[in-house]
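W.,

You were right to be curious about this one. When I first looked at the sequence I had no strong expectations either way, so I just let the prediction run and decided to look at it fresh. Below is the sequence, 130 residues in total, followed by the output.
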Amino acid sequence: MTLNVKDMIAAAEAEIVTLDASIASDRHGAKGVRFIDLRDRRELEREGRIPGAFHCPRGMLEFWIDPASPYHKPIFAEDVQFVFYCASGWRSALSAKTAQDMGLKKVSHLGGGFSAWRDAGLPIEDVAAK
């Protein structure tokens, strides 16, 4: 193997903006900022989410961003700052890099992910199972 996940994350983080939990918290709820939760549904139901975050399963990100895709979601055409997060910041680092490569201009990710947010004692909302 010539490339591993650790290397991929480091390469992504060299090209994207990483926000720590306190800075992300300052931006949370601001006009023109959208938090994107990349975790799977089981993680949301088990742990909750950052209030108001939009859920985008990591496996659908590219399809939801691409306006030519039949799965495109209008949220990704908005002129807003996207703050991606996952559980620990690995998936969100790769996702922020992918989103940036796909043309989204204002992209960042939450370093340390939802765990960092939770450990900082920041607000969490429950997500009921459907």
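Here's what jumped out at me. The radius of gyration is 14 Å. And, maybe more interesting for your project: The helical segments are 5-13, 21-27, 41-47, 61-65, 90-101, 113-119.

Coffee later to discuss?

I.
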